[in-house]
């Protein structure tokens, strides 16, 4: 009888897998690079035969019979376009590298997403059913509350390198002696001060995550999610239980690009899945320019966040002068045409970045150091100059410089001169291109393409009903036990007791002595 049941269950399961899974993906951050990651993940899941519901702030460009989008474009107004003040950053203001600013912003996005009428409607609909949820982790744990209503396993997706604030939910923080806070951006090995500072930063982060930020999430859970579960007669678990109950953590990383640090079994690298498998042909004019560049091509793009209006005019002219003195052709992605552009500099408003990086004549990529751009550079084996602007870009830049295939240049009003030095170094020293090629080989040499790993692990979670076998045992052990604070306390108490006893004995001895002396 049991066997029959098991067989029946197996048949049912495989038949439901043949039809594909019903997957909810939550990518609510209204920033273009997050949109790229969301769109491509959805594309691969659809190609894997699954039915996908996609919570996104962006208009959907590629309709598909098995794709349903839930519009949270209302999140757009939470992103102040003037928040990123490049001139301020150029003058050394580190206001964007502030954890509190980031948390408040990401928390407002999370509550705005779950409170969005379109999302609430989906949650309240009794016919809504999913096999699994994938939620983007951007410094809010709130999405892990969704299983209270949807009653299915939950998977985190982390867009940046593995860091303690997300690993804490599925395993425990990384060792701060060799893993930097992503905003502090140190590269190991650290100095003594560095290690102490990293420990302090971690403790402060954990404190916020477990107390004040956590309290805000609990109250959002109580107002946005718990009432729906109650209404539908479902149990309402404590948010603290849901927060530590994710089945898997997918990382937009690959160890060839990040640091080799010990990660729990539920962490799976899928970095590079956003890169097209087939390189799209270049537009005719760019193809011609790149084909005929005898001395190679340098591609310069500062991503989607830094706008040309942000750069001071002297700097624009300074950059043109530096580029004009090179023998290489420079393709500069910039939204405005500049006067006095030298012959070897081509300004383009739009550029197919992956196709440019794939061209055999490309010799160098000058970038802001976003993780997507760096992953693409490693994919195509191209050396880099990174000019970080905000968020994890400093960490990325420092790390790839240390790995030996890039140079970091600080964003400043006079960075044209620093860039000149860096250009000559990377172009004149073969080490950079060779390291980039070697890392590219390591990056491609894996058992599974990232998109296949994505589909496999998502299906694995459903096949194994939430993959409890991957759950790190550390999650259920309090931090003080993991780092033996209880033992330390015991030793301290024993020492104190010992000291007291010794003092007492000494006291007795001396008082006896004095009694004896008196007698004499
Ligand atoms: C935790 O996740 C597992 C696997 O998805 C699930 O079976 C269990 O019900 C979840 N626990 C709670 C309290 O939701």
Could you give the topology of this structure?
Layout: H1 2-18, E1 22-26, H2 32-47, E2 51-56, E3 67-71, H3 86-90, H4 99-115, H5 117-124, E4 132-137, H6 147-150, E5 154-158, H7 164-170, H8 192-210, H9 212-231, H10 239-243, E6 248-251, E7 267-269, H11 284-291, E8 297-301, H12 313-324, E9 329-333, E10 345-348, H13 353-358, E11 362-367, H14 371-380, E12 384-386, H15 393-403, E13 406-408, H16 415-428, H17 430-444, H18 450-463, H19 479-482, H20 485-519
Parallel strand pairs: 1-2, 1-4, 2-3, 4-5, 5-6, 6-7, 8-9, 8-11, 9-10, 11-12, 12-13
The structure holds 2-acetamido-2-deoxy-beta-D-glucopyranose (NAG).
Keywords:
520 residues, alpha/beta, Rossmann fold, seven-stranded parallel β-sheet, six-stranded parallel β-sheet, binds 2-acetamido-2-deoxy-beta-D-glucopyranose, transferase, transmembrane, signal, UDP-glycosyltransferase, membrane
